[in-house]
Structure to design on (672 residues):
């Protein structure tokens, strides 16, 4: 049911903030969206979804029981997927089913997450990336038309990170031309898959393939787990929900076990390898890790997902900070807006800049991903290691940075930021999961580190390396870069830090080997440094890409838009340079005086951005329905909304709670 939202006048403080804006907001929105036409398309889609949909709940989700919350999420998912299927895909084109616009609009329906998210987010992409044309023709139309609903079941109770250690088996039986899926141990039970517990009737399963007595490693299979009519689990399938967790509370993350469950041979996803009718195993892939393709795809999309989540948190915290007043600066003067405190600006302006950095980098990463995949389709897999290294570190660093900045947004809202009605706790717990899923932070940075160590060795011996590590050709044999406080200078310093750290890792590994360790132990002992080196490389990529993309995308912008976009990018460079002063002192010629100057310029930049702060978050163009926040709505009527939300607490449904008569009164009367 759609709740009525009272129309209110804009809070005078916010109205005044908007009058201070000196740039064209729409131009900035267009840059964020990827062009004027993209903004128009997004707005059209948002209008369709939000005018049609049951986006507001009368009872907030957090006041419902687990069961009610799931049922409500399913109800809304069905409404939303109908709108996606019947109206939105007509605009984006069927091939853009994973468009960030659909993802963004979904947030108006789900404060938390839809149980269908993984169907569109991972099941469908796996069908597209891992099927033969015949399999695609069989499964994809049904999946896009919601005739079947899928999940992605890879992780098991015993293993998430180490995919090669998965225990579920798929043993080929040539007599019946079937695979027998089996879960031999409790640790082999699939665990975590979103939408698997109660919603999905199909799933993609990763299992160890056995044929002709030999194990060929992990492969993907499509498995029907429930009857399409009754929705009962099929015989041989044990499936359920894994229980309450920190977030993801409106979805049904599931467990799944197989008891010698049979599927047809054709249900092995055979794009990269197949099993013939007689059981013969034939590998066609030119790269052994192409079956991990869905994970690479999601890691790539998560960078823009982080920009989106950060832009929501920043919008909430900055609008709130413009209407919140606290503490007299001088006796008898009005209390200032908390946004006037430089410490508050330090917490928040980096969030705006980071949302831009991730958004611009994510578009560049998406284009890189598309280009590499086009090459792979032609049989050229040369660029795959670089894409894997890049998507791994960008996923790790963007999710981790987004998480800590979102927490800063919550801190910036004081006590009210702790309220679920602010939406900050939902955003935080959603993003907290992203640091772990699709590859844990440390694990992915260590993947990038493998690539970097090889690249460093190449550069050291004078060979040219691939584009994202090309800085190693300049810096691998340089001791310290000369400090220069321009943007080029700061970017080069980040590259020098990365090169210095990678070089130090290589030397540590070599020294350890010299002292008698084998390579594996030398690597293991160096992993703390390797993680730091991969993070430094990622920061070098981020600052360079953000800067270049900002310059490219503002070429034809008006002067004031150029200025404000430039200011944000400089703020991003300075913020991270100041965060990494220890590294700068180690790997560049920066002096204490240079760092003091940098600090002063950073503080001046905060002050310069202050008048445009509210308009910069307005430029994210997040409708109130998407923000779901008592603190962040466009009109800034924070206190009215907090009070309104409080009235919805189930505890306020009756003036006296029955527990008073049952427990408190007897306690007061000494009768308990
Ligand atoms: C109706 C409502 C719907 C609304 C929705 C609307 C729209 C939705 C649309 C879109 C959704 C958009 C976004 C989605 C947002 C949110 C998603 C929501 C929820 C997600 C839920 C989470 C799902 C999951 O987590 S799935 C499980 C993921 N699991 C992992 O990531 C495991 C991590 N582990 C690994 O990846 C690997 O094990 C490993 C660590 C990489 C190691 O692998 P291993 O095989 O052991 O290899 P190694 O021996 O270490 O390495 C050998 C060699 O291979 C190289 N390598 C490894 N991986 C790759 C690769 N992928 N590609 C290329 N190369 C690779 C490795 O570097 C090494 O190379 P070397 O020898 O040269 O060094
Ligand atoms: C909300 C949520 C949704 C999910 N959805 C799905 C889904 O839909 N489908 C699915 O298949 N999976 C899903 N997952 C599972 C997810 O992909 C895994 O949890 C994730 O890959 C991490 O693996 P793990 O849990 O085994 O952690 P572990 O690998 O056990 O990690 C524990 C700790 O050990 C460290 N560690 C592990 N290996 C190494 C190493 N080699 N070197 C150094 N440190 C190491 C890690 O850094 C971490 O600190 C989901 C998880 C969450 C939280």
């Amino acid at each position: 049911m759609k709740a009525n939202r009272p129309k209110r006048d804009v809070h005078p403080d916010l109205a005044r903030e908007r009058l201070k804006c000196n740039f064209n907001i729409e131009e900035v929105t267009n840059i964020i969206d990827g062009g004027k036409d993209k903004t128009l398309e997004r707005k059209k889609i948002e209008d369709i979804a939000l005018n049609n949909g049951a986006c507001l709940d009368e009872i907030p989700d957090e006041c419902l029981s687990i069961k009610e919350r799931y049922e409500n999420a399913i109800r809304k998912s069905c409404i939303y997927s109908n709108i996606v299927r019947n109206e939105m895909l007509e605009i984006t084109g069927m091939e853009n089913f994973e468009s960030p616009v659909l993802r963004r609009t979904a947030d108006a329906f789900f404060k938390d997450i839809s149980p269908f998210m993984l169907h569109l987010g991972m099941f469908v992409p796996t069908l597209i990336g891992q099927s033969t044309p015949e399999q695609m023709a069989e499964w994809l139309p049904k999946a896009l038309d919601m005739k079947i609903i899928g999940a992605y079941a890879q992780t098991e109770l015993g293993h998430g990170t180490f995919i090669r250690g998965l225990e579920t088996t798929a043993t080929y039986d040539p007599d019946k031309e079937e695979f027998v899926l089996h879960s031999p141990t409790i640790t082999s039970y699939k665990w975590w898959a979103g939408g698997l517990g109660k919603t999905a009737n199909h799933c993609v399963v990763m299992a160890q393939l056995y044929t002709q007595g030999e194990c060929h490693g992990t492969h993907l299979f499509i498995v029907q787990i429930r009857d399409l009519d009754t929705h009962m689990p099929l015989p041989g399938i044990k499936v359920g929900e894994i229980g309450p967790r920190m977030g993801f509370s409106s979805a049904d993350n599931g467990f799944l076990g197989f008891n010698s469950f049979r599927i047809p041979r054709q249900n092995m996803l055979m794009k990269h390898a197949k099993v013939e009718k007689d059981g013969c195993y034939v590998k066609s892939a030119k790269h052994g890790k192409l079956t991990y393709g869905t994970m690479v795809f999601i890691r790539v999309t998560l960078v823009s997902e982080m920009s989106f989540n950060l832009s929501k948190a920043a919008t909430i915290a900055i609008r709130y900070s413009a209407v919140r007043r606290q503490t007299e600066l001088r006796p008898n003067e009005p209390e200032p807006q908390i946004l006037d405190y430089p410490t508050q600006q330090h917490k928040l302006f980096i969030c705006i800049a980071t949302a831009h950095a991730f958004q611009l980098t994510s578009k560049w990463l998406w284009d890189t991903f598309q280009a590499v995949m086009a090459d792979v389709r032609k049989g050229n897999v040369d660029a795959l290691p670089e894409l894997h290294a890049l998507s791994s570190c960008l996923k790790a660093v963007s999710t981790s940075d987004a998480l800590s900045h979102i927490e800063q947004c919550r801190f910036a809202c004081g006590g009210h930021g702790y309220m679920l009605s602010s939406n900050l706790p939902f955003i935080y717990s959603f993003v907290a999961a992203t640091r772990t899923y699709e590859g844990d932070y440390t694990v992915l940075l260590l993947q990038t580190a493998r690539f970097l160590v090889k690249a460093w060795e190449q550069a050291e011996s004078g060979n040219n390396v691939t584009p994202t590590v090309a800085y190693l050709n300049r810096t691998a044999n340089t001791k310290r870069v000369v400090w220069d406080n321009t943007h080029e200078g700061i970017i080069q310093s980040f590259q020098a830090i990365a090169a210095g750290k990678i070089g130090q890792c290589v030397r540590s590994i070599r020294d350890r080997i010299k002292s008698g360790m084998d390579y594996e132990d030398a690597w293991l002992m160096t992993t703390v440094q390797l993680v730091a080196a991969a993070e430094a490389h990622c920061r070098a990529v981020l600052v360079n890409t953000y800067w270049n993309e900002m310059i490219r995308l503002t070429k034809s912008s008006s002067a004031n838009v150029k200025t404000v976009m430039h200011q944000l990018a400089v703020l991003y460079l300075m913020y991270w340079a100041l965060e990494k002063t220890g590294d700068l002192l180690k790997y560049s010629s920066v002096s204490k005086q240079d760092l003091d100057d940098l600090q002063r310029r950073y503080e001046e930049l905060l002050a310069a951005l202050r008048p445009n702060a509210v308009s910069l978050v307005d430029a994210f163009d997040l409708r109130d329905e998407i923000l779901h926040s008592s603190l962040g709505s466009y009109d800034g009527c924070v206190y009215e909304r907090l009070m309104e939300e409080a009235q919805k607490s189930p505890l306020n449904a009756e003036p006296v709670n029955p527990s008073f008569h049952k427990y408190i009164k007897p306690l007061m009367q000494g009768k308990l």
Observations:
- The chain has two domains: 1-33+292-636, 118-284.
